[in-house]
Specification:
Layout lengths: L1 E6 L12 H15 L4 E5 L8 H13 L8 E4 L18 H6 L3 H11 L17 E5 L2 E5 L17 E2 L2 H12 L1 H5 L2 E5 L10 H4 L7 H10 L2 E2 L1 H10 L4 E4 L5 E6 L2 E6 L13 E8 L2 E8 L21 E4 L3
Parallel strand pairs: 1-2, 2-3, 5-7, 6-8, 7-9, 9-11
Antiparallel strand pairs: 1-12, 4-5, 4-14, 10-11, 12-13
Length: 321
């Protein structure tokens, strides 16, 4: 049996969100020591402003919890890990210009360098670390980069997503790999969501916003090329997609693929909501998922518990050709 805890969008930032790192620690301890998760799947926006010090703080947390390795942790990058975000009112008008001047490749490589121990199937800096794949028992975990490059018209504030053609081609090759095809379950990790914005109200209760804000969100929180992406995954028998980007935790289906959003684990869009993450349990050919509500009172200190991990020698690294 394998248990995977799925979280996303912790938006760690020492200056503007000083409580997020402690919240992330609480959620991870709950997953590891209360639910006994074997593996953590983290689908982007680990940091809020792409600051190196915040990336290092998360690295130290993962290291302290003994999950800073490929057997225990899988990561994909989010738009805030590259472009950051506006945190003050006077930054809003300046932010598109900041995004246009952002060194995309440098921040992609910084993310990889910070968490390099967790990556598999990547050549690292000099070529994109995505996509990568790892096999945990009978489960193939595939990580993709859905953060689109900045564009004045298509992606002015860096929050729209797109899977690059090169990466889609490599995904096709990975899904044809004998090791991957032999797995009973194929799970894809990506930052951007797959649901249609018109369906969002069926998944959670969005906070009240005015029409202008709603239209801005619809224009700047897209994943372009969803049809092609879904078609590729269907052809490769992908059964589940894990993502974040929008800050609530929920389950839905697209084209027969189970989709889990983990964006409400640390920074839910409704501040009154409890912290929630997804727990996926794989038992041979059976896969089930449920939403776990974090009860802070029952999170026990790591030093008082045994360390739980996946079966030894369960990890196989797979690299795109």
């Amino acid at each position: 049996m394998l248990k995977i805890a799925h979280i996303s969008d912790s938006h760690v930032n020492e200056r503007f969100h000083p409580d997020h790192l402690p919240r992330l620690k609480t959620v991870l301890e709950h997953a590891l020591y209360v639910q006994h998760a074997d593996h953590i799947a983290f689908t982007g926006d680990i940091t809020s402003n792409a600051d190196e010090r915040d990336l290092k703080a998360c690295r130290e947390l993962f290291k302290d919890l003994e999950i800073l390795n490929a057997e225990r942790l899988s990561l994909v990058i989010g738009n805030h890990d590259i472009f950051g975000g506006p945190h003050l009112a006077d930054e809003l008008l300046q932010f598109p210009g900041r995004c246009s001047n952002r060194d995309y490749v440098r921040h992609l490589n910084l993310f990889y360098d910070t968490f390099s121990e967790t990556f598999a199937g990547s050549e690292g800096p000099g070529s994109s670390p995505f996509p990568y794949a790892k096999v945990l028992g009978n489960v193939a975990m595939i990580g993709l980069n859905s953060v689109a490059r900045q564009s004045a018209l298509r992606n002015p504030v860096g929050s729209n997503g797109e899977i690059a053609d090169r990466e889609l081609d490599e995904l096709v090759m990975l899904l044809k790999d004998k090791e991957i095809k032999h797995c009973d379950h194929r799970i894809v990790m990506v930052h951007h969501h797959l649901f249609r914005r018109k369906d969002e109200s069926k998944l959670h209760t969005p906070p009240e916003t005015n029409v202008i804000v709603e239209r801005i969100e619809q224009a700047t929180l897209k994943l372009r090329g969803k049809r092609k992406f879904l078609k590729t995954m269907n052809a490769g028998n992908v059964g589940m997609v894990l993502h974040g980007h929008v800050h609530f935790t929920a389950e839905y289906s697209r084209k027969g693929i189970v989709c889990l959003n983990g964006g409400g684990a640390v920074y839910p869009v409704n501040p009154r909501e409890e912290l929630k993450y997804n727990l996926i349990t794989i038992d041979k050919k059976t896969i089930t998922q449920k939403v776990i509500v974090v009860n802070k009172e029952i999170v026990v200190k790591a030093s008082e518990l045994d360390r739980f991990g996946p079966e030894q020698s369960a990890l196989t690294l797979v690299k795109a050709a």
